[in-house]
Amino acid sequence: MEQRRSLLTAACALAVMALVSCATRAPAGRSASAVAPAAAATRGFVGNWAGAIAVGAQATPIVVHLSRDGSGAYHGTIDIPREAARGLPLSAVVVEGAKVIFSLDAGSDVAYFSGSLSGGVISGEFTQGPARGTFTLTPASPGSPGGGAAPDRDGAPIELHTATGTLYG
After folding, report:
1. Per-residue pLDDT for 79 more than 70?
2. Entry pTM
């Protein structure tokens, strides 16, 4: 009985090693470096992103803050400095590989963003009611204009949560 249990344990260990090996190996015909960007892109969305929405000749600066909770779900807020709007909650933040989709409930017309991460830049299509355009976002560092909360005297960001959003400063 003891010998059978040892053989079963060894077989299970080999099966786990085989699964791990297959999961970390690139598919046939693809190098491991070709597979890595998709995994990095999924992790790469978290953070502060500054850029603009362009509709026709009109560009509106925006800052998007994306985070991920313990369950793996993405959440976010958007700042629209021209409208003195900060911390507006994004809804339906979905990340699949290098693609991201999120929306902003802007009253009667919901604003939709659909883009992808490539070369460290998120870019894609923007729609709100009849308006159609594009958006581009690049990483923004905390403390830089549009990059997040300014540190308080102790160096920690200050956030004030309200019913309509979060104020940073």
Report:
1. yes
2. 0.61
